Every structure is written in structure tokens, then in C-alpha cells.
Amino acid sequence: MIMFSSQFFSEISTIGLQQWNTLAQHDLFCRYEWLAALEHSQCVTHKTGWQPQHLAVYQDSQLIALVPGYIKSHSYGEYVFDWSWAEAYENHHLAYYPKWLSGIPFTPITGRRILTLELTDEIVEYICQVLQQAMTLKQWSSTHINFLTEAGHFSNTMMVRHAVQFHWQNKYFQCFDDFLATMTARKRKMIKKERNHISAQSLDIVWLSGDDISTEHMQGFFACYQQTYLKRSGHSGYLNWAFFNEIKHSMSNNIHLCIAYSNQALVAASLYLSDGDTLYGRYWGSLADYQHLHFELCYYQGIEFAIHNKLNRFDAGAQGEHKLTRGFEPVITYSAHQVAHPMFASAITDFIARERTHVAQYAEQCLTQLPFKDQ
User: Fold this and answer.
1) How would you classify the pairing of strands 4-9 and 54-59?
2) Nearest residue to 33 via CA among 50, 13, 47
3) Which of 84, 127, 259, 298 is deepest in the core (most CB within 10 A)?
4) Crossing angle of the two packed helices 17-24 and 32-40, in degrees rounded to 10
5) What CA dihedral angle connects 357, 335, 310 and 251, to 10 degrees?
6) Coil, strand or helix: which one is 193?
7) Is 269 helix (H, G, I), strand (E, B) or coil?
8) Over 70: is that where the pLDDT of 127 sits?
9) Using an 8 Å Cβ cutoff, are 55 and 8 in contact?
10) CB 102 within 8 A of CB 144
């Protein structure tokens, strides 16, 4: 019989970079550098509603698995929406918060959430048992694992929820025109018109990567990021300068900036990360309104970058049906949930079952809106 033990801890430094990354492997946003930057910059703390509470699993005193996790006092920055669940609790004079969440703060990107060299059903079952017990001992209303790749392992122990994102797939394109050639004439013309409009506004687009990104470049991006958040949401963004400055140094091999200049002045920028397979579009902002510039910096430039660097996939972030007409295809994402209260556990199970049917129908409908010739 396999004997496991476990421990929750509130700082990633308790484990340390080498041990953490040995288990995180190539999962970019689960690596020590990204998660540590969030903690060091105080973007994730009790005060921000993201209190680190990571789970370590041991076998015979040897660390074999890690689950990055947080105690949440709200549902902001998660991108798996459970506001209606929280409202139902409130209507019944029950506390939905605190809850525990395994996910990457402010980052709706699919990846492994159980970091281990070999994921087994025994490890998953043990972790689910630990989380179930913790809900009672720590008085969490629920536990959640968001944007996980290993959904099948959880189907017997947690409620698995489906959602839809839109990702671009590289189908052995040699250039952007190869990609456009797969589209209907009308959609091809629309994209060319949007891209030509950038040139007509006298905007110059520049890519910078790694050590070519100076502190001044990153500060310019950060000013754009804050300005856009202020305009859209009334606050300056979830992430602060300390975070961006740290990842600029600790993850320089993975970071890229796509910058728009007008008369040599930086007016907009997008921050990307990449691994050996995928380009991730993470954050963007602009200091002024330029027609179609968001599409250019966040989609078209990313597609060109992925083609040029022979990356298989481009994940441009959550939501956005407008991505469909620009060649991004629907993909199903997964999250897993446990709920302590029996009545709500039953109700949420029924809700998720009905929701899954609607999600499947929505994904099928999205396929009919793709711009490709064979659709």
C-alpha cells in the first residue's frame, strides 16, 4: 500500500527553486520564477485576496508532488466564474469565502496543476482526500482546480466543469499569407484592411526579446498596461511594477514585447511569453486610441511570431468571440470542484451537468463561424 503525507505552506520559498522546478518541468506559468514573482511583489497576499497556500505531497519523506494553491476571499482574477454560486450562498446566509483555489493568479492558461514527474490515480485520489479534509478543518466552503490538463483523473473524485477558449493553431504555415490563404476571400480582405490601417496611421511595430528588452521598454509597457486597466476597469491592474520587473530578469529567455511607436514614441505594447511549443499573449495596453491596433498587437503580430518561430499554438488569453473571425479555434478547458455543503454540492453538480451541454453546443456553434474555406 502506498503511503503518502502532505503539508500546506504559505510561501513558495519553503520549497525553493530547484525542487519546485524539478516537478514543474516545462509548465511555464507553474514554474517557480512566475509564482515567486507574484509573491515577492505582493500581488498575491491575504490583503489582495490571494493568500498562498500551496500543497506538498510526500512519499516516504520524499517530495513527489506540488499543487500551487491560494485561499481566496473573492473570485476576481480566476476566469472560471462562480459568482452565481457565491450569490446563492449569500442568499442562504452562508459564507462562500474563504475558498481554496489551485490556479495561476490572473492567468487563464491551461496547464498541469499537480506538479509531479508521474501523475497517477493514487496521487490524485490522495490530493482530493486531503482537500476534502481541509475544507472541514479550515472551514473552506469549497476547493477548485482551474484550467487543468489532467481533467480525466478528477472525474471520479471532483465535479469537472467545461468552458471554451479560442486558440490559434499553426498548420505548418511558412508565412502570414499562407495562413490568410486558408480563409474565405471576405475574411481575408477584412484582415488585410485592418492591418493596412496600422501603416496608414504611421505606426511602427517592433519586437524585442530577452536581454534586448530594457528597463525603459518594460516601463513603457507597464504605463500602457496601467492606462488601459484604468480606462476599462477603474483600477490600475492586478499586477504591479515589481512583478513585471522581476520576471523581466528571472524569465528573460521566455519574454517578448511587441511595441507600437508613433514618431519614435512608444504608444502601445503587448507582453508575450513563449515556451518550446506555444506563444502566450498575456497583457497589453495603449496610451491612445488607434483603430485596429489591439488586433494587430495582440493577434496578428502574435500569429506572425508563432509562424516565424515554428510554434504550434498561440494562446491569446480568455474569452473574445471576435477571435473566431481571425482564425482562432474553440477549445474546451476544464476545471474541477469540491463543495463542502451537501445541498449546494448537489445543486452545483446539476448546474455543471446542464452547463456542460450548453458549452458543447456553444463550441459546435463557434465552429460554424470560423473563416476558413472548408467550413
Assistant:
1) antiparallel
2) 13
3) 127
4) 130
5) 160
6) helix
7) strand
8) yes
9) yes
10) yes
pLDDT of 282: 94
Q: CA-based Rg of the chain, rounded to a whole angstrom?
A: 22
DSSP-derived 3-state class of residue 287: coil
Q: Where are the beta strands (DSSP E) in 152-277?
A: 159-169, 203-209, 255-262, 265-274
pLDDT at residue 1 in the model: 62
Q: Are 370 and 167 in contact (CB under 8 A)?
A: no
Cα–Cα distance for residue pair 50/68, rounded to 1 Å: 12
SS3 71: strand
**Of 222, 312, 307, whose CA–CA distance to 259 is shortest?**
222
Q: Which is nearest to 130 in space by CA: 264, 299, 256, 5?
A: 5
Contacts with 208 (C-beta within 8 Å, 6 or more apart), sequence order: 217, 256, 257, 259
Omega into 98 within 30° of 0, i.e. cis?
Answer: yes
Q: In Å, how far are 75, 96, 100, 260, 299 from 82, measured between CA atoms?
A: 7, 10, 13, 37, 28
CA distances from 240 to 110, 137, 237 (A): 23, 34, 7
Q: Which helix (H) or strand (E) holds 339?
A: strand 329-339
Lookup: cell for 366? 463557434
Taking residue 129's Cβ as centre, other Cβ atoms within 10 Å add up to 13
3-class secondary structure, 311: coil
Which pTM was predicted?
Answer: 0.95
- The residue with cell 528597463 is 215
Contacts with 13 (C-beta within 8 Å, 6 or more apart), sequence order: 36, 39
Instruction: Give CA angle at 66 (65, 72), nearest 5°.
Output: 150
Q: Give the Cα separation of 56 and 33 in Å (integer).
A: 18
Average pLDDT of span 213-223: 97
For the chain, the helix, strand and coil percentages under 3-state DSSP, each to the nearest 5: 40, 25, 30
Sole residue written with cell 509548465: 27
Q: Angle CA(315)–CA(337)–CA(102) in degrees, nearest 5?
A: 55
Q: Running DSSP on this structure, what letter comes out for residue 185?
A: H
Q: Convert 336-354 to b/e letters by CB count within 10 Å (16 or more is b).
A: bbbbbbeebeeebeebbee
Give the residue-averaged pLDDT of 329-350: 96
Q: What are the grid coordinates assigned to 370, written together? A: 470560423
Residue in this structure with the C-alpha cell 483523473, named with its chain if needed:
153
The whole-number pLDDT of residue 354 equals 97
